[in-house]
Amino acid sequence: MDSRTLLNQAKADGFSGNSTFKQMLEVVGGKNADLENNIDVAALFLDLVFQETKQAHLLDR
């Protein structure tokens, strides 16, 4: 699993904040998930999401 690939898929799926986060958690922490490796990917994915939406967050302040 790659964080950049997750971000690209999230964008293709519409990239709506809570929905994207929920889907990521289902994949990362799923029944057959490799938690030890996936947690690093999840952290990088969330960092990418925040970077992508940084301007929107700044405007919402």
* Annotation, overall tally of beta strands: 0
Percentage of residues in helical conformation: over 70%
Overall body shape: globular
Number of helices: 4
Could you tell me the radius of gyration in angstroms? 12 Å
The run of helices and strands is HHHH
Round the mean pLDDT to the nearest integer and report it: 75
Number of domains: 1
Question: Mind explaining what this structure looks like?
Answer:
It contains 4 helices and no strands. Helix 1 (3-12) crosses helix 3 (35-52) and helix 2 runs antiparallel to helix 3. The longest helix is centred in the last third of the chain and has 18 residues, at 35-52. The radius of gyration is 12 Å and the shape is globular. The chain has helices spanning 3-12, 17-28, 35-52, 54-60.
Topology at a glance:
Blueprint: H1 3-12, H2 17-28, H3 35-52, H4 54-60
Helix pairs in contact: 1-3, 2-3
Comma- or semicolon-separated keywords:
globular, single chain, 61 residues, mainly alpha, 4 helices
Short description:
By secondary structure, the chain is mainly alpha-helical. It is about 75% helix and about 0% strand.
